[in-house]
Amino acid sequence: MVHSGFQAAAQCSYYVLMPQLPNLHSLANSGQPLCVHCLTCGHRAALPPDEWAPSQGNMTEVRSLKLKCSLCLNKNVEAFVVHSEQTVAHFLAGADLAIFRKWR
């Protein structure tokens, strides 16, 4: 199950679990969600592509997206590109973020 809760707004850190998905075009083609973690309040969300509108032909890099937490409105967030719904579930369940960060 995919959950949302982050809004566009600030520079984010970028960690890739699926290196072939560095831009919005490739994310649109894959259908994978973008996992986001707020470094201030700890809120986590998985944004399905239809919610944040990646589009074919849009070569904007994921790391350049501007995001903010919908709970605390802080702009200090990090984004993770994941490869499966199982990984999304693991992320949302509170998995240690070091697991995700090792794939930078």
Description:
This protein has one domain (6-101). It has 104 residues and is α+β, with helices and mostly antiparallel strands. The protein is 23% helix and 28% strand. The termini are far apart. The protein has a five-stranded mixed beta sheet with strand order 3-2-5-1-4. The protein is globular, with a radius of gyration of 12 Å. Mean pLDDT is 76; it is low at 1-21.
In short:
By secondary structure, the protein is an alpha+beta fold. The chain has helices at residues 24-30, 49-52, 85-92, 97-101, and strands spanning 6-16, 34-38, 44-47, 66-69, 77-81.
Distance between the termini: 25 Å
Number of domains: 1
Indicate the radius of gyration in whole angstroms.
12 Å
> How can the largest sheet be summarized?
5 strands, mixed
Unreliable stretches: 1-21
Global structural class: alpha+beta
Strands of the largest sheet, in order across it?
A: 3-2-5-1-4
> What oligomeric assembly is this protein in?
single chain
Essential attributes:
104 residues; alpha+beta; globular; disordered N terminus
Describe the secondary structure blueprint for this structure.
Elements: E1 6-16, H1 24-30, E2 34-38, E3 44-47, H2 49-52, E4 66-69, E5 77-81, H3 85-92, H4 97-101
